[in-house]
Design brief:
Elements (H helix, E strand, L loop, with lengths): L12 H25 L5 H5 L3 H7 L3 H13 L11 H16 L2 H11 L5 H26 L8 H18 L6 H17 L5
Helix pairs in contact: 1-4, 1-6, 4-7, 5-8, 5-9, 8-9
């Protein structure tokens, strides 16, 4: 193989792949050690890249952790709108449970409940706020279409996601689609049954 031929450049290319490896390594280390125990110096070795690649892209440790967290949990900040509210909420709960049931998800739970409000935890809070906003938009569209009576979307989100945290964190059994369907059915039935007539 000729050493003189320049490497072909692709959109995103090597730098994008290096960044992905660094973010993945950060997630892996946070899952292993928690946010508080995360050591910036280990990232390059775990990612299989040169240390300068980490420092050049993320001169600040907290910036790296924040970006990795946001990158990993961005799917949690969305709720699909297929036109079937029951299905969309069930799928949302299954995605939430899948993330919570990983070492990384458990580290996030511990970080959120710790008293230490680092930038990383504040970023997590931002993701959760985005999730609440996404839930509000989905519920508001369901109300507009007549799928639901007027309801406090924040309350609905808390009611359906609370049992997921409980089941996953207790670790008694895996969270299954049947669990998600039961939770959503009971909550939606309760909202419809208690809606004021008029």
């Amino acid at each position: 193989m000729s050493q003189s031929r320049p490497a072909a450049r692709r959109p995103g290319g090597r730098n994008a792949r290096v960044r992905e490896r660094i973010l993945a390594a950060t997630v892996e280390l946070v899952a292993r050690d928690g946010i508080a125990g995360f050591r910036y110096e280990e990232v390059a070795e775990c990612a299989g890249v040169h240390r300068t690649s980490v420092y050049r892209n993320w001169p600040d440790r907290d910036d790296l952790v924040v970006e990795a967290l946001l990158h990993y949990v961005e799917d949690l900040a969305s709720v699909a709108d297929t036109g079937d509210l029951q299905r969309d909420l069930v799928d949302f709960l299954l995605a939430l449970a899948a993330v919570l049931d990983t070492p990384f998800g458990q580290s996030l739970e511990q970080a959120i409940h710790s008293a230490r409000q680092t930038e990383a935890v504040q970023a997590l809070t931002k993701v959760l706020d985005q999730r609440v906003a996404a839930m509000r938009r989905r519920v508001d569209s369901a109300v507009e279409r007549g799928e639901l009576p007027p309801v406090d979307s924040g309350f609905l989100g808390e009611m359906i996601s609370g049992p997921v945290h409980l089941i996953v964190n207790r670790g008694v059994r895996p969270f299954a689609r049947a669990d998600a369907e039961r939770i959503v059915s009971v909550i939606l039935a309760g909202i419809r049954a208690t809606a004021p007539e008029g």
